[in-house]
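Whiteboard transcription, Tuesday session. T.W. wrote the structure tokens on the left side:
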């Protein structure tokens, strides 16, 4: 069964907003849990959200995380806009 993109996108946005006071970057597994999706299905949705500019991908080299575009401490330091 294919997941509904709009429904999953809203679940991710709601989940990030709930936790936005404590953190701005999320592991892929966190996003997959927010959608109740299997990793392969979640990857397609997260990738589409990055392509649309809703989420940004961040990597330290050893850790990969995602966050809302323009949110968090890193965005100002890295001149993301």
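and on the right, the sequence the group agreed on:
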């Amino acid at each position: 069964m294919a997941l509904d993109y709009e429904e999953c996108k809203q679940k991710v946005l709601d989940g990030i907003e709930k936790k936005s006071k404590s953190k701005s970057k999320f592991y892929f597994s966190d996003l997959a849990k927010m959608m109740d999706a299997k990793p392969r299905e979640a990857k397609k949705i997260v990738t589409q959200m990055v392509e649309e500019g809703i989420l940004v991908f961040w990597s330290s080299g050893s850790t990969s995380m995602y966050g809302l575009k323009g949110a968090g401490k890193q965005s100002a330091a890295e001149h993301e806009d």
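Someone added at the bottom: The first strand starts at residue 25 and ends at 26.
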